[in-house]
């Protein structure tokens, strides 16, 4: 895929995620993922799973606070398995899980990065390549 097209798609996904995060919390694996999303411009609620409680307790805690969430975990094997498990637990607690961003970002970047924490650096790297090749 051409770098400029990829950059446009990635920036649009991030822009849409920023907008969605104004209404819905984003759930990520850890603090590094949270920090990367803040660097990308998200300023809504970002919740980390690694909060010292079981996944079952986490899902129950989320259900007491929210009806809908955006789940954005890593795209490696562990992240995929965790996405499936957390999704099921949240759904069992009557929380609607939005996976659209996870799927679209995975499709766009999973050949280059496997985790949320690398999204900011990938965006900057792609911008530099576009500037270098097209300016």
Count of alpha/pi helices: 6
CATH topology: Dna Topoisomerase Vi A Subunit, Chain: A, domain 2
Q: Which CATH C-level class is it?
A: Alpha Beta
Stretches where pLDDT is under 50 for at least 5 consecutive residues are none
Strand-residue fraction?
A: 5-15%
Helix content: 55-70%
Number of strands: 4
Question: Measured on Cα atoms, how large is the radius of gyration?
Answer: 15 Å
Biggest sheet record: 4 strands, parallel
Compute the average pLDDT: 92
Order of helices and strands: HEHEHEHEHH
Name the strands of the widest sheet in spatial order. 2-1-3-4
Shape: elongated
Q: How widely separated are the two ends?
A: 19 Å
How is the quaternary structure best described? single chain
Instruction: Report the CATH architecture.
Output: 3-Layer(aba) Sandwich
- The tally of domains stands at 1
Class by SSE composition: alpha/beta
Structure description:
- The two termini are 19 Å apart.
- The chain has six helices and four strands, in the order αβαβαβαβαα.
- It is α/β, with parallel strands linked by helices and 135 residues long.
- The protein has one domain (3-134): Dna Topoisomerase Vi A Subunit, Chain: A, domain 2 (3-Layer(aba) Sandwich), CATH 3.40.1360.10.
